[in-house]
Write a structure and sequence with these properties.
heterodimer; A: 70 residues; mainly alpha; B: 745 residues; alpha+beta; Palm domain of DNA polymerase; eight-stranded antiparallel β-sheet; five-stranded antiparallel β-sheet; 19 helices; 23% strand
Chain lengths: 70, 745
C-alpha cells in the first residue's frame, strides 16, 4: 500500500534536491513502521493514514531527542 | 465356503469395476480381495432438466440412473430431491457430467469426482491400516468380499502400525545422469545392499524382479522413484518385452510412462511434483516426491492417511489441503450432504470499500532494530485453524440467512451461522484435538515411543498450517473468499486483544506478527504472564502460550532500508540456552554448506553468551572465527561441494534472457545434454565470477568433481555478508572486520 502511494509521488520526488529526496524516503519509511495501524484503518484514501503515521513517527523522534530513553 | 478372518487393511485401490483390498491377516498371510463397486453421484435442478439428463443416460455404459432420493444441500443445509446415478466407470464420469452440464445449464451435479477408494472407505467406516474383521468367498474369479468392519478408530492416537518389510531404492550418482548412461540403482533390503547397473538394461529389470520376488517387501521407499527410476524401468521392460513385476497379488495393470512433472505451489514455496507411480498390493513411496515424508517421514504419511481415509500412496503424494478436503468429504457423505462438483458459489457482490476493509491478512508490527534483553515471546497455538473451529468459520456457515447479525466478524460485514456447525470446523476440530492428545502423550510416553508420536504430531501440525491457504484457493472444493476474510479478521482482532491485555499490565510491545507477540517488561514473572495469557484465552477463545523468554534477541535491519527492520529477520537466545533463528543465511536453502557452517560457527559462539555484556566480550573470538574461515577460503582447501550454491529454476532455459547465474548454469547443462524443469533445483560453484565468457563463470552439478579452482574473492564477500548479518549489533566486532586487510592475491 505504502509502495503504491510512494510510486504516485515519483514525479514530485524527481524534482526534489537529492538531500530532500532522501528526506522524503525517510518520511515514507517512518510510515512503514505503522503498517499494522494502517491495515486496521483501511482508509479508501491511504495517503491520509500515511501522513498521520509520518507525523506520529516525527513526534516520537522529537520526544526521544528531548528526552532520550534510558 | 465363507472364510472369516481378522487383520490389517494394508491397501485399497480401485481397478474398474472393482475395489481391490489387500489385507494382512492375523496369520501373517497377505490376501487380495475384490468387491464390485459403482459409487453414486447425484443430479439436481428443475425436474425437467434432471429427467432430460436421465433419459440421455439410459443407454450409457458409463453411468446409470438409480432413482430419486433426498440429500442435504451444502450451502443452505436444506433437504433437496436429487436423482442418484450409479457410476459404472468412475474414471469416465467426470467427462460425462461435464457434457450433461454443458447441455443444460440448470442442471447441477454432486459427489462426482470423489476418489472411489475414499468413497468405499467412508461408506464402510474403513481407513488405511485399520484393524478389521472380514469374511469372503473363494471363487474361480478370486476372493469376493462379503463383509468388512473396522475394529479400531482413526482418531485413537495410541495405535501401533505393523512392521513393514522395506526395500530402498536410490540412484548411485546424480539424478542428472540417466540410468542407461552410467548411473546405477542401489537396492537395499534387510539382507543387504546391491548395485544394479542401468547399462544392463533387460538384465537390470530381471535382477530387480528377482530381488522383489525373493524379499517380498511391503514398502519400496525410493528417492527419485517417481521421476526417474520407475519411468526408466517401465521403458526398459517394455523395450525388452518382459514384465516389470512390482505389484503384488494384483491383476495386470497398464501404466503410462510419463517423465514430465509439474511445478506446484505449496505453503513452503514452489516445488517440483514428479509424476505418480503407485503400486498395487505394495506401497511405493518416493520420499523425494512427498511433502509429508519430508516433514514427518513414513510414520507421518500413515498418520495422515488414517485420518484422511485416503490410500497411503495417494496421501504420500498430496498436500495437507487434500487431506482436509478428504476429511470434509467423509463428513459430508456421513451427513448426507451433497459435495458440489464444480465450485459453483461466486463471491457475493461487495463494494470496493468493503473489499479493502476485509482482505488484508495478518497484522505486522515492525520491531525496533537492535539488540534487546529480557524479551518475552507469546504465540497463539494454531491460530487460524483454531479460529475456524471456535468461530464456526466454514464456507457454508458464512453469511447464512438464519443468523443475520448474531455472530458478526469484527471489522467486516460478515457473520457466521450460530445454528449449523460447518464441515471445515468439524474436520479441523478432529485434527486439533488429536494433536493435543499427542502433545500430552509426548510428556508421559516411554522414550522409544517418542519418535513415533513426534512424527505424527508434526504431520498434523503441517496439515493445520496448510489449511488456511486452502480456504481461498480456487480449486478448493469447500473454499470461499468470505471464509478466508473472516479468518484473517478474527486473527487481527485476537492479536490486538492480546496486545491490549499485555500493554495494560505495563508491557511494551516490541514486535508482533500475525499470531505472535514480543513484549518487554523489566521484572516480569512467569506467574504474571500465565495469568495474562489466561485472560487473553477467556476473551478470544484461543490459546496464547509463552514460546520463551529471550536472554537477548537481535532484530535485524532491512537490506534495502537500513533504518527499518524486517519482521522476519531476527535471532536470539532463549533462557534455556536454545537459539531461535529466522531469515538469515543459515536458514536459506540457497546458502552453500561452507557459508552455512561458518555462520553456524559464529552463532554457536554467540549462543554461549547470556547477555549483551557477554556478547561484547566474545567479539574478539567472533572476529577470529571469521578470519580463520577467510584464510581457509584463500588457501584453496575449501571442498568444492561445500561451496555449491543451490538455486531454484523458475522457467525453461530458453525463457531466460539475462546472464543471471541460474540462466548461465542452465545453458551450461543444456550444452551437455541435461535439461532441468521449472521448480527443480540446480547446484553450482562460482569458479570465476568476472570472466568475460559467462559460460566460464560457474560449474554446476554433476560436474563438481571437475572444479579445479574456485573464485575465493566472490566467496569472501559472501562470507563477510554472513558475518555482518550476525555481528551487525556489535560495533566493536564490525569495525575491526572492515579495517582488516583482505588476503589479496
Amino acid at each position: 500500500m505504502i509502495d503504491s502511494v510512494e510510486a504516485l509521488f515519483a514525479p514530485y520526488r524527481r524534482a526534489l534536491r537529492k538531500e530532500d529526496q532522501e528526506r522524503l524516503d525517510r518520511l515514507f519509511n517512518m510510515a512503514r513502521r505503522q503498517t499494522a495501524a494502517g491495515v486496521m484503518q483501511s482508509d479508501p484514501d491511504p495517503f491520509r493514514t500515511i501522513a498521520l503515521s509520518m507525523l506520529l513517527e516525527l513526534l516520537r523522534q522529537v520526544e526521544e531527542r528531548d528526552d532520550p530513553p534510558r | 465356503m465363507i472364510r472369516h478372518a481378522e487383520g490389517i487393511l494394508f491397501d485399497t485401490a480401485y481397478l474398474e469395476p472393482e475395489i481391490h483390498l489387500w489385507v494382512r491377516c492375523a496369520t501373517g498371510e497377505l490376501v487380495n480381495l475384490q468387491v464390485p463397486f459403482a459409487p453414486l453421484f447425484y443430479l439436481a435442478g428443475p425436474r425437467a432438466s434432471v429427467e432430460g439428463a436421465a433419459s440421455r443416460l439410459k443407454d450409457s455404459e458409463v453411468a446409470q440412473p438409480a432413482g430419486w432420493t433426498q440429500r442435504v444441500e451444502f450451502w443452505t443445509g436444506e433437504p433437496v430431491p436429487v436423482l442418484g446415478v450409479r457410476a459404472l466407470k468412475p474414471q469416465a464420469t467426470v467427462g460425462l457430467v461435464r457434457r450433461l452440464l454443458h447441455q443444460d445449464h440448470r442442471l447441477r451435479a454432486y459427489d462426482v469426482d470423489i476418489d472411489p477408494a475414499l468413497s468405499f472407505h467412508s461408506r464402510h467406516g474403513l481407513f488405511p491400516l485399520a484393524r478389521i474383521a472380514l469374511s469372503w468367498v473363494d471363487s474361480p474369479a478370486g476372493r469376493c468380499l462379503r463383509f468388512i468392519r473396522a475394529l479400531d478408530d482413526p482418531w485413537d492416537p495410541e495405535y501401533v502400525a505393523p512392521e513393514f518389510r522395506t526395500m530402498r531404492w536410490s540412484l548411485m550418482q546424480s539424478e542428472r545422469i540417466p540410468l542407461g548412461a552410467g548411473n546405477a540403482l542401489r537396492v537395499e533390503t534387510a539382507e543387504g545392499a546391491e548395485k544394479i547397473d542401468g547399462r544392463g538394461g533387460e538384465l537390470a529389470v530381471r535382477r530387480l524382479n528377482d530381488l522383489v520376488a525373493e524379499t517380498d517387501p511391503d514398502v519400496i521407499v525410493s528417492l527419485r522413484g517417481d521421476q526417474f527410476i520407475m519411468p526408466w524401468l517401465l521403458e526398459t521392460a517394455a523395450a525388452a518385452k518382459i514384465p516389470l513385476e512390482l505389484d503384488r497379488q494384483a491383476p495386470p495393470v497398464v501404466r503410462r510412462i510419463r517423465h514430465e512433472g509439474r511445478a506446484i505451489h505449496v505453503y513452503s514455496g514452489l516445488i517440483f511434483k514428479a509424476p505418480d507411480y503407485p503400486l498395487f498390493g505394495r506401497w511405493h513411496l518416493d520420499v523425494g516426491n512427498s511433502f509429508f515424508a519430508s516433514k514427518a517421514g513414513i510414520e507421518g504419511i500413515v498418520e495422515m492417511a488414517r485420518v484422511s481415509r485416503l490410500p497411503v500412496q495417494r496421501q504420500a503424494r498430496t498436500s495437507g489441503g487434500t487431506a482436509i478436503t478428504a476429511m470434509e468429504i467423509h463428513l459430508a457423505l456421513q451427513r448426507r450432504i451433497l459435495v458440489p462438483f464444480v465450485k459453483d458459489q461466486v463471491e457475493g457482490f461487495r463494494t470496493a470499500a468493503e473489499l479493502l476493509a476485509a482482505d488484508k491478512g495478518g497484522l505486522t508490527f515492525y520491531p525496533p532494530v537492535g539488540l534487546w534483553e529480557g524479551v518475552v515471546e507469546l504465540d497463539y497455538h494454531q491460530m487460524y485453524p483454531s479460529i475456524m473451529a471456535v468461530h464456526n468459520v466454514s464456507p457454508e456457515t458464512m453469511n447464512c440467512r438464519c443468523c443475520q447479525g448474531q455472530h458478526p466478524v469484527p471489522g467486516t460485514s460478515h457473520h457466521s451461522c450460530t445454528r449449523r456447525r460447518g464441515l471445515v470446523p468439524d474436520a479441523l476440530h478432529g485434527l486439533l484435538t488429536k494433536r493435543l492428545k499427542y502433545k500430552a502423550l509426548l510428556k508421559t510416553c516411554s522414550p522409544e515411543d517418542r519418535p513415533r508420536y513426534d512424527a505424527r504430531a508434526t504431520a498434523l501440525k503441517w496439515t493445520l498450517v496448510t489449511t488456511f491457504g486452502y480456504q481461498g484457493f480456487h480449486n478448493a472444493k469447500f473454499g470461499l473468499i468470505e471464509a478466508h476474510e473472516a479468518i484473517t479478521a478474527w486473527g487481527r482482532e485476537s492479536l490486538l486483544i492480546a496486545k491490549e491485555v499485555f500493554e495494560r499490565a505495563g508491557y511494551q510491545l516490541l514486535h508482533a506478527l500475525t499470531d505472535s507477540l514480543y513484549v518487554l517488561k523489566p521484572g516480569h514473572t512467569d506467574v504474571e504472564i500465565s495469568a495474562l495469557c489466561r485472560e487473553v484465552q477467556s476473551r478470544t477463545g484461543l490459546t496464547l502460550g509463552i514460546e520463551g523468554v529471550y536472554d537477548w534477541i537481535s532484530f535485524l535491519p532491512s537490506k534495502t532500508h537500513s533504518t527499518l527492520s524486517v519482521a522476519t529477520r531476527y535471532f536470539g537466545r532463549f533462557a534455556n540456552g536454545d537459539l531461535k533463528v529466522r531469515g538469515i543465511k543459515v536458514r536459506q536453502h540457497s546458502t552453500p554448506p561452507f557459508l552455512r557452517e561458518a555462520q553456524e560457527g559464529f552463532l554457536a559462539i554467540m549462543q554461549e553468551c547470556r547477555s549483551r555484556a557477554e556478547l561484547e566480550a566474545a567479539a574478539p573470538r567472533l572476529r577470529a572465527a571469521c578470519t580463520e574461515r577467510v584464510r581457509l577460503l584463500w588457501s584453496g582447501k575449501a571442498a568444492p561441494h561445500t561451496l555449491a550454491i543451490t538455486a531454484q529454476v523458475s522457467q525453461d532455459v530458453r525463457q531466460y534472457r539475462s546472464n543471471s547465474p541460474v540462466a548461465v548454469v542452465l545453458r551450461i547443462l543444456a550444452a551437455r545434454g541435461i535439461s532441468v524443469s521449472a521448480g527443480q533445483t540446480v547446484r553450482y560453484v562460482i569458479v570465476d565470477q568476472k570472466n568475460v565468457d559467462p559460460l566460464q563463470r560457474y560449474l554446476p552439478e554433476p560436474f563438481l568433481d571437475q572444479v579445479r579452482d574456485y573464485d575465493a574473492r566472490a566467496y569472501e564477500l559472501m562470507l563477510r555478508d554472513a558475518y555482518d548479518e550476525v555481528a551487525v549489533h556489535f560495533k566493536s566486532a564490525r569495525a575491526v572486520m572492515h579495517s582488516q586487510t583482505t588476503f589479496d592475491d
